[in-house]
């Protein structure tokens, strides 16, 4: 079985031509059910040899090894150049060509960034906890440029008809911004349906990022293409990656 860019999503966003971005799907790997097939997560119960092969297949279409993070649903952003071995963080950024920023997801929201000139990029992992904690705002700040000059892409995540949460989740967002109430609808006793993509757009707009693409793909409702922890409980992980074109590393 071969693996190619055709097994991935290519973000539809107005990034400059020297900025490359990909989002993996379930396709193109060797893992068996329930991790079939391109599981990239090393701590979800899959055969380690299968995960190594899957990561090797992904590496074959990249300029360098991705700078994998140990994601903790927090707000820490790191310089990808300094990531050597599973740095505890939920976003990374770089201004160096050939350095691949990456985050893994299986319902949480991946957000990719670049500036219009293609001189800096970032990848952020935004589950609701990280989103509420400010992971997107911190990533914007780490990019150290005028936020109005940034572009963002929202990848596949649990959609607004599937993301059932307790009212405490709604309260956490509304406490920070009354506008967040628009991202929740009542759904039974003490429950709400939340819209992660809308919450991310609100947070980005408040941080000054106006050019936002994507945000229309639900992981839960598309089992053929996407892993979903909420849907399957035992699930693989996908990767969202972004880098600046340059010499291979």
Give a quick rundown of the structure.
It contains 6 helices and 16 strands. It is an alpha/beta fold and 249 residues long. The longest helix has 12 residues.
Please give the structural blueprint.
Layout: E1 8-9, E2 19-24, H1 48-59, E3 66-67, E4 69-70, E5 77-79, E6 87-88, E7 91-94, E8 100-105, E9 109-115, E10 121-126, H2 128-133, H3 135-142, E11 150-154, E12 164-166, H4 167-176, E13 184-186, E14 191-194, H5 196-206, E15 211-214, H6 229-232, E16 238-244
Parallel strand pairs: 3-8, 4-6, 5-7, 11-15
Antiparallel strand pairs: 1-2, 2-16, 7-10, 8-16, 9-10, 9-11, 12-14, 13-14
Q: Can you walk through the features of this model?
A:
The protein is α/β, with parallel strands linked by helices. It has a single domain (5-157, 210-244), classed as 4-Layer Sandwich (CNF1/YfiH-like putative cysteine hydrolases). 20% of the residues lie in helices and 27% in strands. The protein has six helices and 16 strands. The strands form four sheets. It has a six-stranded mixed sheet. A five-stranded mixed sheet has the order 1-2-16-8-3, with no helix packed on it. A three-stranded antiparallel sheet has the order 12-14-13. A hairpin with a 5-residue loop joins β9 (109-115) and β10 (121-126). The protein is globular. The mean pLDDT is 96.
């Amino acid at each position: 079985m071969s693996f190619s860019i055709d097994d991935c999503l290519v973000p539809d966003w107005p990034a400059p031509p020297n900025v490359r971005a990909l989002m993996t799907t379930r396709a193109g790997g060797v893992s068996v059910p329930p991790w079939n097939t391109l599981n990239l997560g090393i701590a979800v119960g899959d055969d380690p040899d299968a995960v190594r092969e899957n990561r090797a297949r992904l590496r074959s279409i990249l300029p360098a090894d991705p700078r994998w993070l140990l994601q903790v649903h927090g707000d820490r952003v790191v310089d990808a150049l300094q990531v050597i071995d599973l740095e505890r963080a939920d976003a990374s950024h770089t201004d160096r060509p050939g350095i691949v920023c990456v985050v893994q997801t299986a319902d949480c929201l991946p957000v990719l960034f670049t500036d219009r000139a293609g001189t800096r990029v970032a990848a952020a992992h935004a589950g609701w906890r990280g989103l509420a904690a400010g992971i997107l705002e911190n990533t914007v700040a780490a990019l150290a440029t005028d936020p109005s000059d940034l572009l963002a892409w929202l990848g596949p995540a649990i959609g607004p008809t599937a993301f059932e949460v307790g009212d405490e989740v709604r309260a956490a967002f509304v406490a920070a911004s009354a506008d967040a109430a628009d991202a929740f609808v009542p759904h039974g006793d003490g429950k709400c349906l939340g819209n992660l993509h809308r919450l991310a757009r609100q947070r980005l707009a408040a941080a000054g990022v106006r050019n936002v693409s994507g945000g229309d793909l639900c992981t839960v409702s598309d089992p053929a293409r996407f892993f979903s922890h909420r849907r399957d409980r035992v699930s693989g992980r996908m990767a969202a990656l972004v880098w600046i074109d340059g010499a291979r590393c």
